[in-house]
Write a structure and sequence with these properties.
The chain is built from five helices and seven strands; from the N terminus they run E-H-E-H-E-E-H-E-H-E-E-H. With 157 residues, the chain is α/β, with parallel strands linked by helices. Strands 1, 2, 3, 4, 5, 6 and 7 form a seven-stranded mixed sheet that branches. Helix 1 runs parallel beside helix 5. The protein is globular and about 45 Å long.
């Protein structure tokens, strides 16, 4: 019998314990006990490839703000996969979070520009988790995971 579950791919750069906490919160939200028909694949940007996205029903991207831009790891993913994915998954639903020590504007603009070129659909503007570490960041990331997984399961996205 074919697997009718939706597939959520989480691609998150995790260079620090706090970024691991945020990634794990996204996974926790996506694995909410009320969501049963979504399979989750979590990858480091260096390990993700175009095939992972071609089989995805939705994607969550997590990055740090590095020098006013997305992480080098996420940029590497897009450098390798942009053209193999171009025009292959239009309207792919995307959520993204940015851990920004400053304002996150450059990272936000970069992600929005890349996604616009791919014709992927941001479900909401990128979440910018800026400034000093705040435990509320964890709840925001849980919400991102739950929002995407629940929307996929319900057929909204």
């Amino acid at each position: 019998m074919p697997n009718l579950n939706k597939k959520l791919v989480i691609i998150a750069h995790v260079p620090s314990p706090n970024m691991q906490i945020l990634r794990d919160a996204v996974i926790s939200g996506a694995n909410n006990h009320e969501i049963n028909n979504v399979d989750i694949l979590t990858l480091c940007p260096f390990d993700a490839n175009a095939d992972d996205i071609l089989t995805a029903d939705g994607v969550i991207l997590g990055t740090t703000e590095n020098l006013g831009y997305i992480s080098g790891a996420l940029k590497d993913f897009f450098d390798r996969c942009y053209y193999p994915l171009l025009n292959k998954k239009p309207a792919l639903p995307i959520l993204t979070y940015i851990r920004a020590g400053h304002d996150g504007t450059g990272s936000k603009i970069a992600i929005e520009t890349i996604l616009k070129g791919l014709r992927w659909k941001l479900i909401q503007p990128p979440i910018i988790l800026k400034g000093d570490w705040d435990k509320d960041f964890i709840k925001q990331c849980e919400t991102i995971g739950m929002t995407m997984a629940a929307g996929l399961e319900a057929g909204i996205y």
